[in-house]
Each structure stands twice: as C-alpha cells, then as structure tokens.
Amino acid sequence: MSERLEALVADYRARLPGRVAALEEAARRLAAGEEGARGEIRAEAHRLKGSGASYGLEALSRTAGALERAAREGDADAVAAALQDLRAAITPP
C-alpha cells in the first residue's frame, strides 16, 4: 500500500469513532420513537458500507450493511445489535 493510501486509510479510521457515536445517538432517538432517526441511520450506514469497501475494510463494510438493513426495517433492537458489531469492527485488536 502506498504511503498516501495508508495516510488516507489512517485518517478515515480516525474519524470512525465519531461517526459511530453519532449513529449510536441516532439509535437512541430511534428507540425513543423518533422516526426521522431511521433514515439518518440508514443513510450513514450506507455511506460507511461504501467507503469501508473502498478502503478495503471488508468487516466494516459488511457490518455497516447489516446496520443499513436493520434501519431500513425500523428494528431498533437489530439496529442496536448491529451498532455493537460496528463498534467492534472499528476497535483495533
């Protein structure tokens, strides 16, 4: 991997915790019945799915895809479970 690409991936990874925290807040709003949160979660999960794949972060992309599906269905419990998996996917071993 080129140094430039490594720097881009590192920058992307550094921003992931904030993005996941925003998703977790939206999930709390979804669980409280705020319907607009569903679309917000779906859209951000879709972006993460695509960008994760672009950067070669396959586990992140798969997990974000599961989150996107859960949000599309409006299943707050499935959203919460997918977010736990997403948090694990971005946490270094």
From TrEMBL:
Mitochondrion is among the record's keywords: no
Keyword Phosphoprotein in record: yes
Molecular function GO labels: protein kinase activity
Residue ranges of every copy of the HPt domain listed in the record: 1-93
Gene3D superfamilies hit by this protein: HPT domain
SUPFAM superfamilies: Histidine-containing phosphotransfer domain, HPT domain
PROSITE patterns membership: HPT
Superkingdom of origin organism: Bacteria
Pfam families with a match to the protein in the record: Hpt
One Gene Ontology biological process: phosphorelay signal transduction system
Entry keyword set: Phosphoprotein, Two-component regulatory system
Protein name (Swiss-Prot/TrEMBL): Hpt domain-containing protein
PTM annotation (Phosphohistidine): residues: 46
